[in-house]
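FW: tagging you since you asked about this chain on Friday. Here's the raw sequence from the shared folder, copied in full. Didn't touch anything.
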Amino acid sequence: MTDSHIITDTASVHVEDTGRAGPALVFLHYWGGSVRTWYPVIECLTARCVALDHRGWGRSSAPETGYTTADLAGDAQAVITALELDDYVLVGHSMGGKVAQLLATRRPAGLRGAVLVAPAPAKPVPIPDGVRAQMATAYESRESVLATLDVVLSHAPLSDALREQVVEDSLAGASAAKREWPARTILEDVSADLARIDVPVLVVVGEHDRVEPVEVMRGNVAGVIPSARLDVVPGAGHLLPLERPEQLAARIDTFCKEFTSWHW
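HL: got it, structure written out here
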């Protein structure tokens, strides 16, 4: 695996690339996560896997501004361009899923499909001010992260090691990155060009997801993106990459092989 930083217009983006030959999966993590969120999934795959830390998270730089969906999509596109990926599938979770939707509307060269894992809808659903206020303080302390993990994010129990990883990644986020998603970015409507998405899309959601419930995914994502279909994972919550990595990896693998000649 190669570990590098790719310089975009306004950020330095940390990237981990397994470097295998052939088509690639490009992983975009959730608000509070990092490339490490995808490790359990990547371990189950034989494809080339490229995972990046969004600006303000993990080992990427943390500018004071530039946390719109378009900024994050621009970073992802810069990584794809720098690595000269010409045959790839986007895999975006939650915040990363919203980024993937916007990027897919731009029809970038080489994009073959998108797997949206419990994605934040491109057209946001109403979020009460009280909920956004709770989000703004969710990653302030170890106690608040664990409470958010147990009450909101997960359904299936996580190992002690994964719980500690969630705490570390959430607390390590830059102040601007923690602030901007609940204050502004989650509220952005980037749905205007969803009909332009011209590649197959798989929407995967946990049966017990409290952040992006099944009905929201059915009506506000799978129901408005051409050629999208919905797949519900039993017994899981919002953190599918950590709660059900084997099942998620199997769905990604099957999806890619259905519409391509890819053989990892």
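FW: The mean pLDDT is 96.
HL: agreed, and The two ends are 16 Å apart (CA to CA).
FW: great, closing this out.
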